[in-house]
Design brief:
Elements: H1 20-35, H2 42-69, H3 74-79, E1 83-87, H4 88-92, E2 101-107, H5 113-126, E3 130-136, E4 143-148, E5 151-159, H6 182-200, H7 204-220, H8 233-246, H9 252-265, H10 293-296, H11 318-339, H12 345-348, H13 354-357, E6 360-368, H14 371-392, E7 398-403, E8 408-414, H15 417-424, H16 430-433, E9 447-460, H17 476-487, E10 497-505
Parallel strand pairs: 2-5
Antiparallel strand pairs: 1-2, 3-4, 4-5, 6-9, 6-10, 7-9, 8-9
Helix pairs in contact: 2-5, 6-8, 7-8, 7-9, 8-9, 9-11, 14-17
The structure holds 3'-deoxyadenosine-5'-triphosphate and manganese (II) ion (2 copies).
GO molecular function: ATP binding; metal ion binding; poly(A) RNA polymerase activity; RNA binding
Domain Poly(A) polymerase nucleotidyltransferase: 8-201
Protein name: Poly(A) polymerase
């Protein structure tokens, strides 16, 4: 085999060193990022390291305890080991203040998943400085969420087919996946992908700085969300990593200045990959559009570098693809201006204009009577929203169905059926707008309504020249189908949960979608007489 001369599936575009200009814009970019407050303090960094050290010790204690229970000798129980690995933004080194640390606890084969929830979780509850410990053993990726010394943690577990887990273990070897439970394979997938990504970029510091910039930009422009059909953290990281490979000697300014143009011009559905897709020891599918029609349907495939290769962007739809392409174009224009000193970096991070952009919006309101139900119900509706987007994309004369990346949560206190129906439909009447829990105490029919409202911006084809009458836009079918679909959720209860899809004009958008001073005040919506 020839020696590896470059990282990535093609040769680099340029091996040039940064110019004086590149150096200057990188300095101003980093200044702007600091100004935007995305870096944590040194104190917080130390606290995270301290917490991870303590957690690593606790995992070893847990393994030792279970080992003794299984009849291992004291020495063997100590040697059984146990190790934690991080993934997510913390592992990549691009986390912000107050974000979580995603961690997987790797244990030897005689420690089971039940032990993780029956023994480790109680140990964690007793652990000094731990709070808000809550396990979700039945999740697709079983997880314990917790806080230690105020630091949020997502804890996964993986049981390897090894009798000891030494401190020097890495998760790189594909053969480690053999004979593992699928949940364990999924749980170490995050670490395997982030570690591989870090190995595949020419300069980790450049990669991190550039990724911080892209993450901030994508969040501000409301295109950072895997569930809603945009890209999530892993996919954005892979795009940046690919540009780093193409400019191995570049600094952050170079990478950013090429990023948007290259992504704008990318010939999708040609995939973005950090290395060639490899086969491996498992009977699992790796991404292959030649073989699988569902893989062929991916519009913007961005493929994870660790075996088994997967597409991290299967939620992208025609609309979200268009929206992202448009954002790439706009950002490329701004960065071109920054390069010639005609714009500031801050302009790249300007807030999105989603609620100013469209004349019509779909308003999707999920409601229920209590906070716990609402979390699960609104999560279910959110996770299926892109199904509605895809149905809308089939509607004739609808150019674009643009989902907003987050839902808005409101609690209202209503006193009768009419108010209840209004609130559950996403309407805000003056009569209950400012009412508090206290106001309905002892009131007959008084109750709380928890609502989460999502928005989809609609871009409609202009009327053909000479056409008369209003343009017909029939969205009753997709919206009815969507309501039916979410109600098929296994825990759906018609008496407890509501779902209403409304078609509104931009002038009817509620104040809560705008920042203070973002829009001119309008007359409030009165209760109809
Ligand atoms: P933050 O800095 O934490 O906002 P992040 O990139 O670390 O950004 P997350 O902590 O949300 O993002 O997720 C880290 C990884 O965990 C990304 C994904 O591989 C996995 N993950 C996130 N949410 C889920 C989920 N609901 N189920 C399974 N895996 C998930
Ligand atoms: Mn995270
Ligand atoms: Mn997390």
């Amino acid at each position: 085999q020839p020696p590896v001369r470059h990282l990535g599936v093609t040769a680099p575009i340029s091996l040039s060193l940064p110019t004086e200009r590149d150096k200057a814009i990188t300095i101003s970019l980093m200044e702007e990022l600091r100004h935007q407050g995305i870096f944590e303090t040194e104190e917080e960094t130390r606290l995270r390291e301290h917490v991870l050290g303590r957690l690593a010790g606790l995992v070893k204690q847990f393994v030792e305890k279970v080992s003794l229970m299984r009849g291992l000798s004291a020495t063997a129980a100590k040697q059984a080991g146990g190790k934690i690995f991080t993934f997510g933004s913390y592992r990549l080194g691009v986390h912000g203040p107050g974000t979580d640390i995603d961690t997987v606890c790797v244990v030897p084969k005689h420690v089971s998943r039940e032990d993780f929830f029956d023994i480790f979780e109680p140990m964690l509850r007793e652990f000094e400085g731990a709070s808000e410990v809550s396990g979700v053993p039945e999740a697709f990726v079983p997880i314990i969420k917790a806080k230690i010394n105020g630091v949020e943690l997502d804890l996964l577990m993986a049981r390897l087919a090894l009798s000891q887990i030494g401190d020097d273990l890495t998760l790189q070897d594909d053969n480690l996946l053999k004979n593992l439970d699928e949940r364990c394979i999924r749980s170490i997938g995050g670490t395997r992908v982030t570690d591989e990504m870090l190995r595949l970029v020419p300069d980790v510091v450049v990669f991190r700085d550039a990724l911080r910039c892209i993450k901030l930009w994508a969040k501000r422009r409301a295109i950072y969300s895997n569930v809603m059909g945009f890209l999530g953290g892993v996919a954005w990281a892979m795009l940046v990593a690919r540009i780093c490979q193409l400019y191995p000697k570049g600094n952050a300014g170079v990478v950013i200045s090429r990023f948007f143009t290259i992504m704008y011009r990318w010939s999708w559905p040609q995939p973005v990959m950090l290395k060639q897709i490899e086969e491996g020891p498992l009977q699992v599918r790796v991404w292959n559009p030649k073989l699988y029609p569902s893989d062929r349907a991916h519009r913007m495939p961005i493929i994870t570098p660790a075996y088994p290769a997967m597409c991290s962007t299967h939620n992208v739809t025609e609309s979200t693809h268009k929206v992202m392409t448009d954002e790439f174009r706009k950002a490329a224009e701004i960065v071109d201006q920054v390069m010639v000193d005609k714009a500031q970096w801050s302009q790249l991070f300007a807030k999105h204009d989603f609620f100013h952009k469209y004349r019509y919006y779909l308003q999707i309101t999920a409601s229920s009577g209590d906070a716990d139900t609402q979390i699960k119900w609104s999560g279910t509706v959110e996770s299926r929203l892109r199904q509605l987007v895809m149905k809308l994309e089939f509607v004739e004369s609808l150019i674009l169905a643009h989902p907003f990346t987050k839902g808005f949560e409101q609690v209202y206190f209503v006193t009768d059926e009419a108010e209840l129906n209004a609130a559950s439909s996403g309407e805000i009447w003056d009569s209950f707008k400012k009412r508090t829990a206290k106001d309905i105490e002892g009131e007959e029919g008084g109750r709380a309504v928890f609502t989460t409202t999502f928005y989809i911006g609609l871009s409609i084809e202009p009327k053909p020249v000479g056409a008369t009458g209003p343009r017909r836009l029939d969205i009753s079918y997709p919206t009815a189908e969507f309501a039916k679909l979410v109600k098929m959720w296994e825990h759906f209860q018609a008496t407890q949960m509501g779902i209403v899809v409304r078609h509104i004009k931009s002038s009817a958008l509620p104040d809560y979608v705008f920042d203070e001073g973002e829009r001119h005040p309008k007359p409030p919506l009165k209760r109809p007489k």
